[in-house]
Each structure stands twice: as C-alpha cells, then as structure tokens.
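S.,

Sequence below, as promised.
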Amino acid sequence: MITVSTDGSCLVNPGGAIGWAWINHDGTFDSGGAVSGTNQVAELTALLQAVRSHPGAEPLLIESDSQYAIKCASEWVVAWKRKGWRTAGGQPVKNLELVQAIDRAITERAGPVRFRWVRGHVGDPFNERADQLAGLAAQDWAAGRGDLDGTLVPELGDPTTAPGRAAPSSTGTAAATATTAATATTSKASSAAPDWGMDTLFD
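The prediction came back faster than expected:
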C-alpha cells in the first residue's frame, strides 16, 4: 500500500496564485502551482498529480483534508458521468477538465485508488507537510519564482540539510482548467526522502 497525503493552497481565493503538493509517507514529495486559480482547483490538482505520479499495481491510498476533492474523485463523479457531466440540478460540473482527468487517471491505473479524509491542521505530520509545501509553491508562483527549483526554506523544518530536490520535471505538469488554461504549472520532485522525524478530508 502506497500512502500519500495531498493539499492545495490559494493565496487569494478565487484568482490568486495557487500551489499543490503531495507527499509520500516515506518522505518523497512533489509540488507545483499556477499564477491564478481557486482553492478547489489546487486541491483537485494535488489529487491528480498524486495519482499520475504513482502508476502500477500497488494499492494507492490518498489522504486529503478536502472533502470536496475526495467526493469529486470518488463519489459525485459516478452520478456526473451518468448525467452527461451535469450536476443533480442540471448545471455543468465545475472544474470539469480536472475531474475528468482524475477519473481517467484512476481508471487507467493498474492498481486500485482509495481516498481517506483527514481533518486538517490538527497535527497530522504528513497533512501539515503537504499544506506547507502547497503554500510555499503558491508563494513561489505569486512572486514569479514558479519556474525555479525551490529549495525548502528553513522555517519549513530541517530538510534543507538533507539531499535537495531534483530539477523541475515534466512529469509534474498539472491539467489545464477553464480558469487556468493559459497557465503552465511546474513541479519540483524530490528524489530522496528527507528525515523529518515522522513516524511509520474540509475546504
């Protein structure tokens, strides 16, 4: 079982810079962002990147503090597909391109994908780390540093003394959405698992 925690951040919702992140419970992670978006876009992108970055037959468990993102990916999507991608009220599904991309990624993955909601900001170490990484990514994009290889700053903990992130990789580009179609996203993947002293969802 691969367990991954995800989170998204939007500095000014809606329309501000966004960041997304996933972190494996072995410490490896990926993060990225865009110059403009919404909190929901950031949360969904984090889920999408987590699924895409973990192919194979091993079961994948994604933990998130966003009930919206989890229900989009695992519950509401079933009815939306049956209704021709319309809500129960007949309205178009919001963030449709991201929802469809997540659905395809899960369908195409050899192994099963499950989701678990975790309450945010209550001390869960991986949820907290995902939140910090997503926030940092959003800040990078807001400051025009979104295309740079970001090394974690000291206030995020001790991983600055561990092996650094790899250069930005093409495997981390997020799906475009209606509100961010013209915005490229960049991810920064870690090839090593920093030792953060860690033991081995609501918008």
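Residues 2-160 form a domain with the Nucleotidyltransferase; domain 5 fold (CATH 3.30.420.10).

Coffee later?
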